[in-house]
Design goal:
Radius of gyration: 19 Å
Helix content: over 70%
Order of helices and strands: HHHHHH
Number of helices: 6
Amino acid sequence: MCDGAVVCGSWAMALAWGWLLAALLSGTPERTAAAPVGAVTALAVAALFAAHGLGFAGLRLTGRPWARAHRLVGRTGAGRSFALTAVLMGALPLFAGPALHPAAHAADRATLTLLVPVLLAFCPLLLAAQAWTWHTFRHRVTHPSYL
């Protein structure tokens, strides 16, 4: 039941990101996108996330899950699929960025005065933790780690 909840929640989040992107691309980030445009964009973003996950699975898994991921990514291969979808996901905010007006949505000066030093202190720690996580889990998954 928990696996099903994780799957449903993941699909819901992917679709929500797509619907949000549709609102940003339409130039009205304060309102939801129109139903057909929002639905198509949501499905496209969810498919992009799924293709990225398949590429990652093809790079990290072994056995039957690896074979299934390789069959689903097709001729491009897992590495190319993962890299291409990563570039596309990185480009999505660049397409949506012009719809946002930073001056209208920025916090006031007192809030920024407090947040900037905190961000400067914690960002290196977060980057170090991410690098450590990537280094620790860099090998292929050959069996469930909880067994």
